[in-house]
Amino acid sequence: MEKLIWLQGVTCNGNSHSFLNLEGLENFLKKFELLYHPLLPSKLSLPQLYNTQCDILVIEGGVKKGLKRGGVEFVKLFLSLAKRAKRVVAVGSCAVYGGVFKEGDNSITGVLFDKEEKTPFFKKLSGKVVNIPGCPAHPEWIAFGIEGKDFHLDEFYRPKELFAYTVHSGCSKNEYFEWKVDSKTFGEKEGCLFYELGCQAPYTRGSCNKMLWNGVSSKTRAGIPCIGCTESSFPKRELFKTKTYMGIPANMPLGVPKRAYLTLSGVAKSFKIERLSTKLF
Amino acid sequence: MVKVELIEKVEGEAYLHYRYKKGKIRDVRVEFLPSRGIEKILKGRVLSDALVITPRVCGICGHSHLIATSLALEKLANFTPSPKANSIRTVTLSCEIIQNHLKWFYLTILPLLNQLGFKEVSPFEAINYASKIQKVIALFGGQYPHTSYSLAGGVACDPSFLELLKAKRLTLEVKEFFNAKLLEEIKSFKEFRSSKGLLKETYLFLAKRKLLKVGKGKESFLTSSKRFKKGKGEKTRIRFIQEEKDKVLYKGEFVEVGALARNFKKGVVREVYRKFKDTLFSRIFARVFEIGVMLEKILKELETIDLSQNSYLPVNLNLSGYGESIVEAPRGCLIHKVTAKNGIITNYEIITPTQLNLSNGTASNPSILQQAILNLKDPLVAQLVFRSFDVCSVCSTH
Amino acid sequence: MESALVLFSKEGFFEVTMADIAKELGMSVGNLYNYFSSKEALAKELIIYISKILGEEIRKINLKKISVKEKIKEIVQFYFTTAKRRPELIEYFLRVYLANREIFKNGCEGMICVSPFVTEIMIFFEEGVRSGELRDQDFFSAFGLFMGYLGGMVFLMGERMLPNEIDYYIEDISENIYRALKA
To answer: Is C168 domain-assigned?
Structure first.
């Protein structure tokens, strides 16, 4: 049975809690010998972890020099475990890029990346790291990072199985995007949040609308703009307002040339689709 | 004799620095990990960004931070949201409290009781129900943890009756589990003693170990609406809450916050409080009992939601001024204070429940925790008392 | 196309019949209807044709590695030169397309037929603001200022009210537009 350790750097525990929402958690964990998890009952205590051999090391939270965990220098503890592990799963955007807390302390980094730059650990560890960003990461993504295999990794070592998609794909407001019917205000079922209200879903990678959150919904489905939490740029500034230049969105849908987008959107905007410009009910 | 103990799995870790005298704890000081600088991160950002940043203080009570931010911003903008938005917030906040209490009981209290000789209880069924109640948050907020669905102006969602029905169905499922496994529906302490469930078993175990009345506090409570001192109440005013280096005081005095503070004047908890005062068992009872209270509250609130009202009204946040809020988070009073100039945050202060409960006082004026742990001998029992406050390390180190 | 353009711009849309156009082309009316099912359909094709020509030229300017100020001048210069050398292109746009919107209501709503042109103008503005040279504002406030100004000058030229050749005004007009839009 593979041994699993879940270690935390600079974190809010959000991924640990998100992971508890995995459907079939108990059976999933039966496949592993859980040596340490920050919330769940586990075999070892923090001070016992140094130099322990584990097969899978999950790391949640940013990497920060000088931070101590269980009385041991965190970086030292992390490296001692990562060296022996077969796989390191960096869970959450803090462990992947540095995350929210990096905004206040620039020395915080992810395991392989410091925003988009490679960290000093890159050379040694990149061969065994799988990055599962998100703030927090979806429980299914975390489980996939732990037990998946033959990953198709992208340039940020994220499995394409999860991150080849944009958060936009599957959004229940897609029709409003297609026909360029924008939401001017929050709290309405109708309209797309991309044009005015800051939604980053069309250029943010993630499966939020492919596998729903808590099995029931997603931010954009509930009318909340995607905040781009799976990308290295998270958290940007002015998250509830679309950045525009002369009224034109500053960020294009992923991989779509500006000319193509403007041509299509200009045409789509020229029609008034009755069904999409009135209240659904 | 000085002894340092590492306490794990309190949403992070804490070090307890004990001072023993003749085998008894004379003093304890709490040390958490260093601050993560959330208040600094907020400075210089536009006000609405706080709705995304502050939930990231904490993975288990981030939603309370979201609501606290929303209310502080609305106070700053002098705005009152629709009753519908208020009701939806009440529902989701209550859900957060429920999942917190379930995890607290099954993941931090029961394993420790097990070390003291209580039966081993698997946490997975409870975790499953904690997840179930989070689905209700997700129905309105899109996801949990870390939604930002509540905004200055109301809520971003526009639910239909479909969501309300599903929320009710899920809540009833959790209620069924709660009544079957944890605590039956009881109207009095007498009924409790003849009831079945894990809370009752916990009671019997603590009674057998003579632990019911350990961990006595200072009969000094604070809720978001009232301050109680030796049973007498007055209206809570945020300005009386003062944060100093490693302590938070109300009008110069230490206060206990959380489920016991919220419920000691109500129903069966009142009876329990009369019998056991502010002790280990009262805290455990109040918190577990509150799960039932919150479930009822959700069901009631869902009935009152008028879907025809606005979910959200635009609020201009290009403002200068000060806003504050106090929210009942799972672990007690949570205070947010924000100052802005032309829509940009110039100062943001957060005071969390754990800071209130776990202040570092002095020998002559001990904090609530210090008082509660005084004279205990067994470090496991001391840890149990410590955990009875439902400590949140990450919140304290925001 | 070219013949129809000249006719429509000179005589006006309603004055010109399909027969007139056929005559100009030296073909039968029946044959002309094989190409265009109606006069409206022909009018629509013409505006798309113009929009593509204008769009293609502005695209070339957009792709140049020059400052926004220089781009403005090149656009003005291109527009006025076109108005002089091929007045039917601009005249059709101003006197037929903009003046007779009812003709274009089916299949030519909003931006549809002028999209190649408007898209390039959008890109010009977007890149100008992104590079910090132009002030951020609503697209149509800027678009109206730029195109309304140029259209107005070409109108004055057409009415022979300008005392000088239109080239004479390029320098000042480019400067005025730049000053009005700059950051």
So the answer is: yes
Contact at CB, B41 and A227, closer than 8 angstroms? no
pLDDT tens by residue, chain B, 398 residues: 889 999 999 999 999 999 999 999 999 999 988 889 999 999 999 999 999 999 999 999 999 999 999 999 999 999 999 999 999 999 999 999 999 999 999 999 999 999 999 999 999 999 999 999 999 999 999 999 999 999 999 999 999 999 999 999 999 999 999 999 999 999 999 999 999 999 999 999 999 999 999 999 999 999 999 999 987 899 999 999 999 988 999 999 999 999 999 999 999 999 999 999 999 999 999 999 999 999 999 999 999 999 999 999 999 999 999 999 999 999 999 999 999 999 999 999 999 999 999 999 998 999 999 999 999 999 999 999 999 999 988 888 89
Helices C39-63 and C115-130: crossing angle in degrees, nearest 10, is 20
| Interchain contact B41–A (C-beta under 8 A) | yes
Look at residue C5 and tell me if it is in a domain.
Answer: no
Task: Tell me the chain A residues in contact with residue B157 when contact means C-beta distances shorter than 8 Å.
Answer: 187, 222-224
pTM over 0.90: yes
Structural domain spans, chain B: 80-216+268-314
C96 within domain boundaries: yes
Which region holds residue A218: left if phi is over 0, alpha if psi is between -120 and 50, else beta?
Answer: beta
Angle at B239 between CA B235 and CA B243, to 5 degrees: 120
The residue of chain B with its CA nearest to that of A107 is: B36
Distance between CA atoms of B295 and B286, rounded to whole angstroms? Answer: 14
Q: How many domains does chain C have?
A: 1
**How far apart (Å, rounded) are the C-alpha atoms in residues A90 and C54?**
52
Chain C residues near residue A259 by CB distance under 8 angstroms: 119-120, 123
For residue A170 the two structure tokens come to 């599957």
The residue type found at B48 is S
CA nearest neighbour of B76 among B320, B311, B336, B313:
B320
In chain A, which residue's Cα lies nearest the Cα of C131?
A: A245
**A17/B59 CB distance under 8 A:** yes
Interface test with C, best of A241, A245, A274 (most C CBs within 10 A): A245
Radius of gyration over every alpha carbon of chain A, rounded to an integer in angstroms: 20
Domains and CATH numbers, chain A: 2-159 (3.40.50.700), 165-281 (4.10.480.10)
**Spatial distance between the Cα atoms of B54 and B44, rounded to a whole number of angstroms:** 14
ipTM greater than 0.95, yes or no? yes
Chains that touch B (3 or more CB pairs under 8 A): A
The 3-state DSSP class for residue B298 equals: helix
Structural domain contains residue C152: yes
CATH number at residue C84: 1.10.357.10
Residue in the structure block whose two tokens are 């000249």 = C6
CATH topology for the B80-216+268-314 domain? Cytochrome-c3 Hydrogenase; chain B (1.10.645)
Strand partners, A132: A91
